[in-house]
Amino acid sequence: MPISELILPRTSDAMTEAILATWLVASDSQVSAGDVLAEVETEKAMVEVCAEGDGLFVAVVSAGATVEVGGVLAYVLSGSEIDDYKSGKLLLAGANQEKDAPAKQSAPIEPQVQMEQVSESAGVGKSITPTETAQGRPLVSSPLARKLAREAGLDLASIAPGSGPGGRLVRADIEMAISRKSHTHVTELTSRQKAMASAMVQSTNTIPHFSISRDIPLEALIDFREQLRRSELEPPSLSAFFVRALALAMQDVPASRVTWVPEGIATHPVSAIGLAVADGDFDLVVPVIRDAESKSLWKIGEEVHNLSNDVKNKRLKPESLQGAIGTISNLGMFGIDSLTPIIPPGQTFIIGIGRSRDRLVNQAGGLIVTETFMTVTLSGDHRVLTGLGGAKLLAQFSHVCENPILLLQQGAFNK
């Protein structure tokens, strides 16, 4: 049988490399299809890499190493390959070098960590026991945090506890400590930030953007959510409403379900909507919700909640970041009236949503009333989406928001 390669997956169109943060199983261990083998830090998030088959796992890349997309991280051997490898007949480049991989865990929810103290004067880390720490307790840190601390000559003991689970020191803690050392200090970009910057430059330089805006009345949607509460059907977040409304609008406007590819224009049968989620003050992650037109509001709300937690805990899987046709970026909760967002590479449009606010409206007969509304701006790729197509999509999105009973069609009460 051919040797199964565990390769670094591409999680975004702009991704070129990533850091192998940690192995979750020991090299030369038996694994099964679906087992989580490693955590990789990409430009978008910390993602998990899983085994695609059963066999003997052999790591060939060390934790902390930077790997190009498509690079081999490990092998999974099966059948006679295992005997050939153990007897020395089968040679694998780099095999048996990953000696610091942790023992296999039955439930790899949290990665194995090392206890380490960094000398501020020498900038070199050494393994120590918990009783040797300044605070009398172990210093728990990620491999990347230790690497950044060494390079900056920081004492991990002076930074602990960190902001990660259980007080774990993570990259953000080290970067914050470096920033505090000097207001003029320039922090080197992480691989994620470099890739994000490259993606934004690629988008603005290669995608012909156009932008259109529309004010959408919100009274009906606000009343609808209150009716659900009175009916003891606790409504999900507004993000879930917007995702489903956009998915239904995309079904009615086929011109919005296309993307630009090198071979031409790809048409997609169902929606795939990215939801921009802030990861701290500097990083933005865009997990994807698929086929929302066929899911209930509550199912979408559950997905939004779980994906947001995955972003926060850096547990997103590669497939959760791929394949979006369009994205929703909602900054209304931060008091922003409107925004003109940049299209992520590989997508066709992005919708920016501002806060709800009131205005006076002169109705027929001279009656002046107060109306609650929000401003929605669509940035589109003019190679595949015309201004008319974008206008139709915003009009249909507005129609669903103004008639929220449409959100409950197609068995939408099924949680």
Low-confidence stretches: 96-135, 411-415
Total helices: the number is: 9
CA-atom Rg in angstroms = 25 Å
Number of strands: 22
Q: What portion of residues belong to β-strands? A: 25-35%
Query: What is the CATH topology assignment of the largest domain?
Result: Chloramphenicol Acetyltransferase
Protein model, in words:
This protein is of the alpha+beta class and 415 residues long. It has three domains: 4-87, RNA polymerase II/Efflux pump adaptor protein, barrel-sandwich hybrid domain (OB fold (Dihydrolipoamide Acetyltransferase, E2P)), CATH 2.40.50; 114-181, Dihydrolipoamide Transferase (Irregular), CATH 4.10.320; 208-408, Chloramphenicol acetyltransferase-like domain (Chloramphenicol Acetyltransferase, 2-Layer Sandwich), CATH 3.30.559.10. Helix content is 26%, strand content 26%. The chain contains nine helices and 22 strands. The chain has helices spanning 80-87, 143-152, 156-159, 171-181, 191-206, 219-230, 238-252, 297-312, 387-402, and strands at 4-7, 17-23, 29-31, 36-41, 46-50, 55-59, 66-68, 72-77, 114-118, 125-127, 140-141, 209-217, 258-261, 264-267, 272-275, 277-279, 283-285, 288-290, 326-330, 349-353, 357-362, 368-381. The strands form six sheets. Strands 12, 15, 18, 19, 20, 21 and 22 form a seven-stranded mixed β-sheet that branches. A four-stranded antiparallel β-sheet has the order 1-8-6-3. Helix 2 packs parallel to helix 4 (171-181). The relative contact order is 0.12. The model is unreliable at 96-135 and 411-415 (pLDDT under 50).
